[in-house]
Design goal:
Helix content is 26%, strand content 14%. The chain has helices at 65-80, 82-93, 121-128; strands at residues 21-22, 33-38, 43-48, 54-58.
């Protein structure tokens, strides 16, 4: 007769705690900026206890205090460098492609870049024909 098998203890993972106190970008003191998340009002706010700097932004249920702080830093940087922020916004809105090589495309494929590429005769004739589907 043997002993009864014992159940192995459940290993619980330690949850990583994210900081709620940060270094102030204006007075450069550690742990003086406190973040308060009001999910009912959907507002995240930051306040520095020493210099009085504050920031608020709209939040949702997935935001963490570090998200609000990093958004504050981004807004401070955009206010300090308005020209570079405007360039960054236009670059994000309209990506530029430096690759102008279309040598790997066969000429008859109809996949040339731009509208100024000459069409082959068969493609030009096909685009001029109208097809009656009999739906009218």
């Amino acid at each position: 007769m043997g002993r009864r098998a014992k159940k192995a203890p459940v290993q619980t993972k330690k949850k990583i705690k994210l900081s709620k106190r940060f270094k102030c970008p204006f007075c450069a003191n550690e742990d003086t900026v406190e973040c308060k998340m009001d999910f009912k009002m959907s507002i995240g706010s930051l306040n520095c206890r020493l210099c009085g700097a504050n920031y608020q932004m709209p939040i949702h249920h997935l935001h963490e205090p570090i998200d609000v702080f990093s958004e504050w830093l981004d807004d401070c940087e955009a206010a300090a460098n308005p020209r570079s922020a405007a360039e960054g916004a236009t670059a994000a809105a309209a990506p530029r492609y430096d690759d102008e090589d279309d040598d790997d495309l066969p000429e008859g494929s109809g996949l040339q870049r731009g509208g100024s590429a000459p069409k082959p005769a068969a493609a030009a004739a096909a685009s001029k024909k109208s097809v009656d589907l009999g739906l009218s």
